[in-house]
Amino acid sequence: MTQSSSTYAELLSAQVGHEFAASQQYIAIAVWADAQDLPQLAARFYQHSLGERNHAMMMVQYMLDRDIPTVIPAVPAPQAEFDGPVGALSLALEQEKQVTRQIEALFQAARAEADPLGEQFMLWFLREQVEEVANMNTLVTIAERADDDWFRIEEYLARETDASTNTGTPPAVAGGAV
């Protein structure tokens, strides 16, 4: 089934780039946090980076499985400098909100094109985005409360696990998940 001319296929191809860009941005945040001696925050963002990479590769596998032309787009350079954890986390929260809007648009495009497989594929990502935004919002709140005592962020992250609860079976990852 070739869908090269559909809006859904075009948005999905673009989303692969957005997911890789998110992965790169999270690596940049992780490296910044490592340089600030915030190992818990760094570890959280190194892990999130892998999650975003896996999301991109889930989309690649789906496109391959559906015979949708698959091209890996270039990504812009990530922001690498931050005034503090609030700035880094606020950027990550806005990024997650943007990804949510993009996934919603993908779902709507699949629906408009009467593509139930596309809709079904996007449902897992919609559930994932609810969690991603909620978790990032919590981290921003914790960082704002910590103010200049960055160690409180580290304490929180050491104590709390990532609150992801998306128990739906994730889509297959091209090349395998990392």
Describe this structure in words.
Keywords: Iron, Iron storage, Metal-binding, Oxidoreductase. Residues 2-147 form the Ferritin-like diiron domain. Pfam families: Ferritin (PF00210). InterPro entries: Ferritin, Ferritin-like, Ferritin-like_diiron, Ferritin-like_SF, Ferritin_DPS_dom, Ferritin_prok. There is one protein chain. With 178 residues, this protein is mainly α. It has a single domain (7-159), classed as Ferritin (Up-down Bundle), CATH 1.20.1260.10. The protein has 5 helices and no strands. It has helices at residues 7-35, 39-65, 85-112, 116-146, 151-159. Helix 1 (7-35) packs antiparallel against helix 3, helix 2 (39-65) packs across helix 5 (151-159) and helix 4 (116-146) packs across helix 5.
Strand fraction:
under 5%
Order of helices and strands: HHHHH
For CATH, the homologous superfamily is named as Ferritin, core subunit, four-helix bundle
The count of β-strands is: 0
CATH structural architecture: Up-down Bundle
Termini separation: 29 Å
- Structural class determined from secondary elements: mainly alpha
Largest sheet: none
What name does CATH use for the topology?
Answer: Ferritin
Per DSSP, the total helix count is 5
Percent range of helical residues: 55-70%
What is the rounded Rg?
A: 17 Å
Unreliably modeled segments:
none
